[in-house]
TrEMBL record:
This is Dephospho-CoA kinase. ATP binds at residues 11-16. Its EC number is 2.7.1.24. It is found in: Cytoplasm. The keyword 4Fe-4S does not apply. It catalyses: 3'-dephospho-CoA + ATP = ADP + CoA + H(+). Catalyzes the phosphorylation of the 3'-hydroxyl group of dephosphocoenzyme A to form coenzyme A. Pathway: Cofactor biosynthesis; coenzyme A biosynthesis; CoA from (R)-pantothenate: step 5/5. It comes from the Bacteria. Keywords: ATP-binding, Coenzyme A biosynthesis, Cytoplasm, Kinase, Nucleotide-binding, Transferase. Belongs to the CoaE family. It is an enzyme of class 2 (transferase). It comes from Hyphomonas polymorpha PS728.
Length: 202
């Protein structure tokens, strides 16, 4: 089964692009959704995170704002958090891959924000980077509720620069040209992946 790693910096349109793959009938693993499930009431990450960062859990779930305040500007705390979350998210991803393979899917998409930063691209057949001009990215992110310039800059500091991601990608998709353009690009990639999976293309 072909694995296409989908990534892109904050505000680039990665989640919208992932939805286009889903609309095309492709199984998509959403790393953010997997983490949300781990943080939710009854999630496997709640107890170990609360133990590591007392006071960030509320009503049996992780309060993401409190957790962000504790780790965003503290590299050691962030590394500790990642040491808890990444193995659990990895298990969820393996479960997704198994299900997609059992369903006979020719290929699947892994939607992972920090794909290159965590080395997840090593487990992908191909990679796709979603991009947009820096001014478009900034405007999109700062329009989000509760987002500040400081938080945006802190998030960017943790992410590989967009130019570096594009240099490593097998495919690049710009979301600056509108929905129809992005949808057409996704359809072309799906068709190519299907041809490769069937042996019709190298």
């Amino acid at each position: 089964m072909i694995i296409l790693g989908l990534t892109g910096s904050i505000g680039m349109g990665k989640s919208a692009t992932a939805s286009l793959f889903r609309d095309g009938g492709v199984p998509v693993y959403d790393a953010d959704a997997a983490v949300h499930a781990l943080y939710a009431e009854g999630g496997a990450a709640v107890a170990p995170i609360e133990e590591a960062f007392p006071g960030v859990a509320e009503k049996g779930a992780i309060d993401r704002q409190k957790l962000r305040a504790r780790v965003l500007d503290d590299a050691a705390a962030m590394k500790r958090l990642e040491g808890i979350v990444h193995p659990l998210a990895g298990e969820a991803q393996l479960d997704f891959r198994r299900r997609a393979k059992e369903q006979g899917s020719p290929f699947a998409v892994l939607d992972i924000p920090l794909l290159f930063e965590t080395g997840g691209n090593r487990h992908c057949t191909y990679t796709l980077v979603v991009t947009a001009p820096a001014d478009v990215q900034r405007a999109r992110v700062l329009a989000r509720p509760g987002m500040t310039e400081e938080a945006f800059e802190a998030i960017l500091a943790r992410q590989m620069p967009d130019a570096d991601k594009r240099a490593r990608a097998d495919f690049i998709l710009s979301t600056a040209h509108g929905f129809d353009f992005a949808r057409d690009q996704v359809r072309a990639i799906i068709a190519l992946m299907q041809r490769i999976a069937s042996g019709e293309a190298p």
